[in-house]
Write a structure and sequence with these properties.
The complex is a heterodimer of chains A (255) and B (214).
Chain A lengths: L1 E4 L5 E4 L7 E2 L1 H36 L32 E6 L5 E4 H6 L4 E8 L5 E11 H8 L7 E6 L5 E5 H4 L4 E7 L2 E2 L9 E4 L11 E7 L6 H4 L23
Parallel strand pairs in A: 4-13
Antiparallel strand pairs in A: 1-2, 4-5, 6-7, 7-10, 8-9, 8-13, 10-11, 10-12
Chain B lengths: L1 H5 L5 E2 L2 E3 L3 H25 L1 H7 L2 H14 L1 H9 L4 H10 L1 E2 L1 H8 L14 H25 L6 H31 L1 H9 L1 E3 H7 L1 H8 L2
Antiparallel strand pairs in B: 1-2, 2-4
Helix pairs in contact in B: 2-3, 2-4, 2-5, 8-9, 11-12
The chains are: A alpha+beta (255), B mainly alpha (214).
C-alpha cells in the first residue's frame, strides 16, 4: 500500500495501481468555479454576443426550440396562479373606473380602433437578471386612457388588476402618465399571446418587468397606494431599472 | 493502521467486493433526490410551455431554492462526520488522471489494453463536472434569488451562467442515469454497497487487483 497525502494533511491510502497519474481534480474544479465567477461579472456581454449570433437561427427556426438555448434573450413565462388564465379577444373587456368622470368598459376592438395607437421598441428587463432586447410593443398609452375617462381631483395612484384573480400592480399618476407606459395589445410584432399576458397587458418600460402586469382586467384610479403582488413579496414599489431593488443608479446600463 | 482495520470499503467479503460504504450511499442518494428535484422545478421555471402549463411560479421557485440550499448539507455532514473514509478514498481516485484514463478517452472505453481502476475516465469526468457545476449553480442561483447587492449586469451574467451550467447538468445526469440503467450491477453497487468479485475483475481490473491481490 502507498500512502498519498492530500494538501490539507489528511492522508488516504490507495492501492499502488491507483495512485499513479496526475492530480488534476482540485485544479479542474477550482478552474470551473473561477470560470463561473467570471461568467457572472462578464456574462451579460457574452450573452449579448451569443444572442446576436443566434438571432439569424432563431428567426428562421419555426419549432421555436433554438430560443431555449442559454444566452438567447428570451422571455421566461411567469404565471403566479395555476396556469395562464384564458380570455379571448372577443370576450375581453378593459374597465377603467374609480376616481374618474366617465368610467370606461372597452372591448379589444375599441382599444385598437377608438384610441390613439402608440408603438415603441424597447427592452424588457427582469429584476432577477434575464433581459430581452428590442421588443416591439403596440397599444394605448395609459395617459390617453386616463384623458378619455377624466381623472377626478384628489386621485394620486392607479391600481391595476389582472383577470388571473391574484396579480395586482400600482403606479403613481405621474408615473402612469409617462410616454413609455403602455396598455399593450401587441408584443414581439404580434397580438400579445396568452402566456405573455394577452390579449392585453401593461408595459412599464422604465421599470423592472414585474411592474408590467399581465392579463390586464381593470385600471382603478384611487387616492392611496396599495402595493401589488410582487411588492408584497418584498420587491420595491418604485421599480426603476438600475435605481431600485438594491441599486442606487450608479451602475453602467446593461447591453 | 486503525482506519484500515475498521474499514470495510474496498475489501473482499466472500465473492463480493464492498464498493461504497453506507455514508457514501446516503450521500449519493440524498444528493440524487435533491438534484432531480432541482432539474424538475428548474425545467418548469425555464421552459415557457411548461411554465405556462404548471404555473404556480412562487411554489416552484420556493421548491427550487430550498432544494438548492439543502444540496450541500449531505456533503457537509459526510465530511464533518467520522464517516468520510470511503468518500475521501474515492475523491482521491477521481482527482487523478492516469494513462488508462487517456487510453479510455482515445478508445472511447473500447481498448482491450484498458485496465480501469475503481472509476473509469467517463465516471471521473462526470464526477468532476458535477462537483464544479453544482456549486456554480448554487452561487449563481443565489445571485438571482438575493439580487439586491448586485448590479443588473451581474444579475444577467448569473442568469446566463446558471442556464449554461444547468444545461450541462441535464446532459451529465441524464447520461449518468442511462449508463447506470445499462449496467445494473454497477447501479446495484451504489444501492447495496457491494459488487460481485467477477464483475470487478472484468470491468475494474486494476481496482480488483488492489483489493484482492489477484
Amino acid at each position: 500500500m502507498v500512502s498519498s497525502s492530500d494538501s490539507d494533511g489528511d492522508s488516504v491510502e490507495l492501492g499502488e495501481g491507483e495512485v499513479g497519474g496526475r492530480r488534476v481534480g482540485r485544479r479542474a474544479v477550482l478552474g470551473m468555479l473561477g470560470l463561473g465567477a467570471a461568467g457572472v461579472v462578464f456574462g451579460s456581454k457574452v450573452q449579448g454576443a451569443v444572442d446576436r449570433a443566434l438571432r439569424p437561427l432563431t428567426l428562421k427556426d419555426r419549432t421555436g426550440l433554438t430560443s431555449y438555448l442559454p444566452g438567447n434573450g428570451r422571455f421566461r413565462i411567469y404565471s403566479v396562479t395555476g396556469s395562464s388564465p384564458k380570455r379571448t379577444t372577443e370576450e375581453y373587456r378593459l374597465r377603467v373606473d374609480g376616481l374618474v368622470e366617465r368610467p370606461a368598459d372597452l372591448s379589444w376592438q375599441q382599444l385598437r380602433r377608438d384610441l390613439p395607437q402608440t408603438r415603441m421598441t424597447k427592452d424588457f428587463q427582469c429584476v432577477t437578471g434575464w433581459r430581452v432586447e428590442d421588443v416591439e410593443w403596440a397599444g394605448v398609452l395609459v395617459r390617453d386612457l386616463l384623458d378619455r375617462s377624466g381623472v377626478k381631483p384628489g386621485a394620486t395612484h392607479l391600481r391595476f388588476w389582472s383577470f388571473d384573480g391574484t396579480y395586482t400592480e400600482s403606479l403613481t399618476l405621474d408615473q402612469a402618465r409617462r410616454p413609455d407606459v403602455l396598455v399593450a395589445h401587441e408584443m414581439l410584432g404580434q397580438p400579445v399571446t396568452r402566456d405573455h399576458g394577452g390579449p392585453v397587458r401593461l408595459y412599464v418600460a422604465p421599470m423592472y418587468g414585474y411592474k408590467s402586469l399581465k392579463w390586464l382586467d381593470r385600471i382603478e384610479v384611487v387616492d392611496h397606494l396599495t402595493p401589488g403582488y410582487w411588492e408584497d413579496m418584498g420587491y420595491d414599489v418604485d421599480a426603476w431599472i438600475g435605481r431600485s431593488n438594491g441599486r442606487d443608479g450608479a451602475d453602467e446600463p446593461v447591453g | 493502521m486503525s482506519a484500515a482495520a475498521t474499514r470495510t470499503v474496498d475489501t473482499l467479503a466472500g465473492d463480493r467486493i464492498v464498493r461504497f460504504d453506507r455514508a457514501e450511499r446516503l450521500l449519493h442518494w440524498s444528493t440524487a433526490v435533491l438534484v432531480l428535484a432541482l432539474m424538475a422545478t428548474g425545467a418548469v421555471l425555464y421552459f415557457g410551455p411548461l411554465a405556462a402549463a404548471v404555473g404556480r411560479r412562487g411554489l416552484m421557485k420556493d421548491l427550487h431554492v430550498w432544494s438548492g440550499l439543502l444540496l450541500p448539507v449531505p456533503l457537509v455532514l459526510t465530511v464533518a462526520g467520522r464517516w468520510r473514509d470511503g468518500l475521501r478514498r474515492d475523491t482521491a481516485r477521481i482527482g487523478r488522471w492516469t494513462a488508462d484514463d487517456r487510453l479510455w478517452l482515445r478508445s472511447r472505453g473500447q481498448s482491450l489494453a484498458l485496465r480501469s481502476g475503481k472509476f473509469n475516465a467517463g465516471q471521473k469526468l462526470n464526477a468532476l463536472f458535477l462537483a464544479s457545476a453544482l456549486p456554480v449553480t448554487l452561487m449563481t442561483g443565489s445571485v438571482m434569488r438575493w439580487f439586491g447587492p448586485f448590479p443588473d449586469s451581474w444579475r444577467t451574467g448569473a442568469t446566463f451562467v446558471h442556464d449554461l451550467a444547468a444545461f450541462g447538468i441535464w446532459i451529465s445526469v441524464t447520461g449518468h442515469i442511462a449508463k447506470a440503467v445499462s449496467e445494473p450491477v454497477a447501479m446495484r453497487g451504489m444501492w447495496s454497497g457491494w459488487v460481485p468479485e467477477a464483475w470487478a475483475q472484468r470491468h475494474r481490473p486494476r481496482w480488483h487487483h488492489d483489493v484482492t491481490g489477484r
